[in-house]
Every structure is written in C-alpha cells, then in structure tokens.
Amino acid sequence: MREAFESLMRRFQSLSTREQVLVFVMAGTAVVLVIVLGLVLMHSKIAGLEDTVAENDRILLDLTTRGEKLLADKKEREMEEARFERELPPLPGLLERLAGEAGIEIPESRELPDDLIGKKWVRKSVEVRLRRVGLKPIVDFMVKVENENKRIPIAITHVNIKRRVAEPDSYDIDITVSAYAKASPGKKKGKDKTGAKEGGGSAEEKEMKTYGPEV
After folding, report:
1. What is the CA radius of gyration of the chain?
2. CATH architecture for residues 91-211
3. pLDDT, tens only, 137-148
C-alpha cells in the first residue's frame, strides 16, 4: 500500500504544473460530486422518513378517530339498550297524562294485542281516539309522546286526522302509540289450553278493553 502511494506521488511530481492543477481540479470535482451525491441521498432518505412519519401520524389519527367513534357508538348503543331494559309504564295511563298536559281529554283508548317481534321483543300498542280537538293541542300531544322516546322506546305508529267541516279548528283523530319491551322468556305465539290465542281472548273480549266512556 505504501509503495503504491509512493509510486503515485512520484508520477504526480513528474507531471507539469498545469497537469498537476488539472489533477487537483479533477480530484476536487470528484470530492464535490461525492459530497453532493451523499447530500442528495441523505435528503431523499430524510424525505422518505418524513413521509413514513406523516403516514404513521395519519394512521394513528385515523385509529384515534375511529376509536372515539367506536366509543361513542358503544355509549349510544348502551343507552339504547338501557331504554329497552326499563320497565314500561301502563300506556293508557301514560297517554292520559301526556294528553292532560297538552290540554286534551282522551274519551276513548283501546289496548291492542301484543305483537311479538322475533324472539326477543314485544310491541305493545294503544289506539287513542280524540274528538273535536284543536290542531295545536293535537300537535302538543304528539310532541310530548315523541319526547317520551328519550326515556323509553315509544313512538306514534299510526295517525288518521279528519277535519270537521262545519266547525272551525276542530278535528277527529285516531292515533296508535306503540312501545317496545323485551319479551318474557318462553312466551310464544299460539293458543292456550282454552283454545284462545295467548295475550288475547275472543274478539268480543278484546273490544271490551276500552278506557273512558264511549262516544
């Protein structure tokens, strides 16, 4: 190695001054090219690392956002399940209270047979008939029923409004309100030992489930 270096130095010294300057210029250019190439490669590597970090940050942000959404969905689902876990109050009494708050008197309401939905849920419905009621009390009553949905699973499932032509701001309205609860274990559709359907009775008996005086 030493001999090769000494041989190289002897050759360099044997060159003219102009040739030596050219060798220095070429060597300097080579060094500059190596430095520039190294800087370019380093910059490219840094840019790649920055892209990787940015992508990782995006993934982490996406995971965080999804996690927050999953937690929010879980909380909302738990709240929904908690509503269904609550024991339903007697619907006729609840509707009479809400109607009273809206300035309406319910002359007639009728509980409809329970409707099993799948194996887990049961729908309980009450049909309410109002006569000669103004539009504003009707709207107030319906809003109060819908507001109860924040506490228990209840909704207006049918509305039929007829206007009394001869009377200003006077309407006859039929409203069906339904609430949902978990079905009792082992409860099935079918007939009991007497041959009548469970939860029902004869058609005449069902018609007798009327609250309030007949109109």
Report:
1. 42
2. 2-Layer Sandwich (3.30)
3. 999 999 999 888
